[in-house]
Design a protein that fits this description.
Blueprint lengths: L2 H7 L30 E2 L2 H15 L5 H5 L6 H9 L8 H12 L2 E2 L2 H14 L10 H10 L9 H11 L13 E8 L1 H5 L2 H6 L5 E7 L2 E5 L3 E10 L6 E6 L10 E8 H6 L4 E6 L9 H4 L4 E6 L6 E4 L32 E5 L6 E9 L3 H8 L4 E7 L2 E6 L2 E6 L10 E5 L4 E6 L13 H4 L2 E4 L2 E4 L12 E2 L11 H6 L4 H8 L10 H17 L10 E6 L4 E14 L4 E10 L2 H7 L7 E4 L2 H17 L10 H5 L19
Parallel strand pairs: 1-2, 1-12, 22-25
Antiparallel strand pairs: 3-8, 3-11, 4-5, 4-9, 6-7, 6-8, 9-10, 12-13, 13-18, 14-15, 15-16, 17-18, 19-20, 21-23, 22-23, 23-24
Helix pairs in contact: 2-6, 5-7, 17-19
Length: about 650
């Protein structure tokens, strides 16, 4: 049963729940498909707004209005939210590395994207501490390969000569990013160690303060030990001799973090400190540490405790210092087999993909001739992410990185330039109309002659324990709510309109209704409490039985935390019915509409294939017909069996 449902039944605040998802790359569902690395193209302003939306979500813990909204929650849920408020998962380095990864797949004017993104961040007042982390974000963006236009070696050199800060007086060359190392005495940790333990999971951060400003740095590295420093100016180096006893030892705590040199030039008279990050969970520490919750601070110029380094300290156990970021290289169009980038158009809010545009160059002579002769160009859906362009006898496939709806696609035909562009909306969610497309959403492909399921997980029935439900009225009837939970909220609303003339045809709901009937009938929970194990799927319009289901056991699918019906599937052909006429005495007939009949014909081969433990023979009908299911256009014809 769904963990969420159990939480709701128990009237408990939601903590964690686990749901198993199978992720598969779209291209892997096609025979002989090679790994794809399509470049995606955005307009700079749309990409900047989309990235800014991600930025706001990643750092939503800094959203004051969201934090104040906790006070309006039920008491139990509010307390749980407060207790977990100290679990912060992202830093500005996380965001910078995410952008570096996106850059490997997205073709755009990245200089403009980063400048637009910076402007959005500076104008934002949603995150109450967003401006405090601005310097860290710029330094992390620079380290990830995104230098801002105003940050250059020339500008740093001018500022260095103009201000002449004591902190860089012995430096001949000042890099754009330097490392600040802070030695925190052991007693500064010891005096609050028990209080920190009682505060759940307190987050530590470094801060640079001046009378007129405060900059915070959440991406820090730390180690207990002794810091040995040698050299002067930009040649100063530091080595950490670690204390193997760690927090149980007596050595000071050494923390270090990257920072823009311009930040230090402007704040060279300030302090650097180690503090506890302010969250609702860490509020009790204010009584011990004060409002700033600083554990220790030192003047930036005090070399007893703080050091400015051109490189991070060296430690044998720290593999990647905080200011060293692995460089990523954005592939070019030539490196992606000469393919044109897929252009992405966003909606007005820049939060949803509106359409994808793919270009197909017509290089074949037959296709070029057809275009030149003014032939009609038609696009048809081949799979969720593939479109076939038809030009008389010539065909060419166009692949997309996401599922698209070709019925709503537009074509741009350039006959002289010999290319066709397909502008198609995405189908990332299952709408009321899209849900009727069972064949489009549940797929199987023949890969090297082997039927391969795309998004239906395999099942070993021999390892799924069988069970029987208690008939005692006092026993907890968990099966009915569990099976009923297969319906989404929208589907539950539609079920209420079952007899209403306004109800739209929805094949997903119809198939689920039939599955619901099968499970509850086998368990004996249908009206009358009679148990049925034999079912006939019947088309009420043609009066034909196109499939017979005989359930032998109900079993637990332990990996997916659900139940399955171990069944025999028999075709409803005339000869089969004649053979079983005297054997099947209490068959429950399930009426299926034309659309549902087609859906069952498509689903049954997939459901059989997921449980198959034997290999297909070379004479397999799937191979000879090159189709799964067989006879896909046969509707509910019982004599054309869809499975082998």
């Amino acid at each position: 049963m769904s963990d969420i449902l159990l939480h709701e039944i128990g009237n408990r605040a939601h903590s964690q729940y686990h749901e198993r998802l199978a992720w598969k790359l779209l291209w892997s569902a096609r025979p002989n498909a090679a790994p794809r690395g399509d470049l995606i193209r955005f307009t700079p302003d749309e990409l900047a707004r989309a990235l800014f939306d991600i930025y706001l979500k990643m750092f939503s813990d800094e959203n004051l209005s969201k934090q104040m909204g906790l006070l309006s929650l039920p008491k139990k849920e509010m307390l749980w939210k407060i207790q977990t408020s100290g679990l912060i998962h992202h830093t500005r380095r996380s965001f910078a590395l995410l952008l570096a990864h996106i850059k490997t797949r997205v073709q755009c004017d990245w200089e403009k994207v980063i400048n637009d993104l910076e402007e959005l961040v500076l104008r934002d007042h949603t995150l109450i501490t967003g401006s405090n982390f601005y310097q860290e974000m710029v330094s992390q963006l620079h380290l990830a390969g995104f230098p801002l236009s105003w940050l250059s070696p020339g500008e740093v050199r001018k500022l260095h000569l103009k201000v002449d800060p004591p902190i860089f007086r012995e430096w001949q060359t000042v890099p754009l990013v330097v490392t600040v190392a802070l030695v925190v005495p052991r007693q500064a940790i010891s005096r609050v160690q028990s209080d920190l333990s009682d505060a759940g999971t307190p987050i530590l951060q470094c801060e640079i303060r001046l009378a007129s400003g405060h900059n915070a740095f959440a991406c820090i590295s730390g180690s207990f030990g002794r810091l040995e420093v040698s050299g002067r100016g930009e040649h100063k180096t530091a080595v950490i001799l670690e204390d193997s006893a760690g927090i149980q030892g007596t050595s000071p705590l050494i923390v270090w973090f990257p920072v823009l040199s311009t930040t230090l030039i402007h704040t060279s008279g300030g302090t650097v400190g180690l503090a506890v990050r302010s969250t609702m969970r860490s509020t009790p520490l204010v009584q011990k540490l004060g409002l700033e919750m600083v554990l220790f601070k030192s003047l930036l110029t005090d070399e007893r405790h703080s050091h400015i380094l051109s490189q991070a300290p060296v430690s044998t156990t720290v593999s990647t210092p905080a200011n060293e970021v692995s460089k990523t290289v954005c592939p070019t169009s030539e490196e992606i087999s000469g393919c044109h980038p897929i252009h992405v158009a966003m909606d007005k809010s820049s939060t949803q993909i509106q359409s994808l545009t793919a270009r197909a160059d017509i290089v074949d002579f037959a296709g070029q001739t057809a275009l030149a002769n003014g032939c009609n160009v038609v696009a048809k859906q081949k799979s969720l992410d593939q479109v076939i362009i038809h030009m008389e006898q010539y065909q060419q496939a166009v692949a997309f990185p996401l599922p698209v709806d070709v019925e709503k696609a537009k074509l741009r035909v350039a006959r002289k330039s010999k290319y066709v562009e397909v502008v198609a909306p995405t189908t990332l969610t299952l709408g009321a109309k899209g849900e009727s497309n069972i064949a489009g959403n549940f797929r199987v492909t023949l890969y090297d002659g082997i039927p391969t399921l795309w998004n239906v997980h395999y099942l070993n029935l021999e390892r799924c324990p069988a069970f029987k439900l208690s008939k005692s009225p006092k026993a907890f009837n968990w099966l009915v709510p569990h099976v009923s939970h297969m319906f989404s909220n929208r589907e539950r609303d539609e079920r209420q309109k079952k007899l209403s003339p306004d109800r739209q045809q929805d094949t997903f709901i119809d198939v689920k209704e039939s599955i619901h009937t099968i499970f509850l009938s086998v368990a004996g929970f249908e009206p009358g409490n009679q148990t049925h194990v034999e079912f006939a799927l019947r088309n009420p319009f043609t009066k034909e039985i196109f499939a017979i289901i005989i359930v032998t056991d109900l079993r637990l699918d332990l990996a997916s935390h659900t139940v399955v019906a171990d069944s025999w599937i028999l075709p409803g052909s005339d000869d089969i019915q004649d053979m079983l006429q005297k054997e099947l005495l209490s068959v429950l007939s399930i009426k299926t509409s034309v659309h549902e009949s087609e859906a069952w014909r498509h689903l049954l081969p997939l459901l059989i294939e997921r449980c198959r433990t034997w290999k297909h023979k070379p004479t397999c009908e799937y191979l000879s017909h090159n189709s799964v299911p067989l006879y896909p256009e046969a509707s509910s014809d019982p004599n054309k069996v869809p499975f082998c």
